[in-house]
Amino acid sequence: MTNKLYIVATPIGNLEDITLRALRILKKVDLIFAEDTRVAKKLLAHFGIGTPIAKRHTRDEQKAAEEIIVELEAGKNIALISDAGTPGISDPGAFIIQKVREWGKKVRPFVKIEAVPGPSALAAAISVAGISANEFLFLGFLPHKKGRETLFKEIAASERAVVFYESPHRILKTLESLKKFSPEKKITICRELTKIYEEVIGGTAVDLLEFFEKYPEKVRGEFVVIVSNK
């Protein structure tokens, strides 16, 4: 019998966005490994799912990988989830999947890693931004300090649209950098996607800085920033 590690996407805000398949998988697996057990418990409780959650947070990817391999070796089916969206995309998961795949090839070739796709802040933002995005560069979360200025210079020079995530603590600083290096480029900011206060704002970096200065209460939530290539 083939046992599996399921990589399950979970809602980025609105819980109704979870897929029927994700709910079925989360109910049937033997154990769930989560980025944060507190967030996972709220999600499972909302849908009446009683599957046990591992105590190990996947933020410690080395230890989580070791424990997941032990459980797979014991014949269990495992689901891996992040707090929101898809594991491995600006969230813990990639290292775990790599280690499980390496182990599976050497020891248990009948262990399968299966994707259960679903919500993505990246896809959601592009879908409502109203920009041409046949091709784009995704940077995830920008570094806090080292290499930031170099990265903004690369964004300014990019011939493709550039998409990245930003926190409310750094969004204004990021806009200041975009004002310095990409003053003419159109920027689209998507905040609180799928939630009650979802909002899409567009303009130059100067326009957006003026907007947040006028509405400082909107400097909240998670942000997806899209810098146009034109």
UniProtKB/TrEMBL annotation:
One of its GO terms (molecular function) is rRNA (cytosine-2'-O-)-methyltransferase activity. InterPro entries: 4pyrrol_Mease, 4pyrrol_Methylase_sf, 4pyrrole_Mease_sub1, 4pyrrole_Mease_sub2, rRNA_ssu_MeTfrase_I, SAM_MeTrfase_RsmI_CS. It holds the Pfam family TP_methylase. Residues 4-205 form the Tetrapyrrole methylase domain. Keywords: Cytoplasm, Methyltransferase, rRNA processing, S-adenosyl-L-methionine, Transferase. It is an enzyme of class 2 (transferase). GO terms for cellular component: cytoplasm. It is found in: Cytoplasm. It catalyses: cytidine(1402) in 16S rRNA + S-adenosyl-L-methionine = 2'-O-methylcytidine(1402) in 16S rRNA + S-adenosyl-L-homocysteine + H(+). HAMAP family: 16SrRNA_methyltr_I. Catalyzes the 2'-O-methylation of the ribose of cytidine 1402 (C1402) in 16S rRNA. Belongs to the methyltransferase superfamily. RsmI family. This is Ribosomal RNA small subunit methyltransferase I. The gene is rsmI.
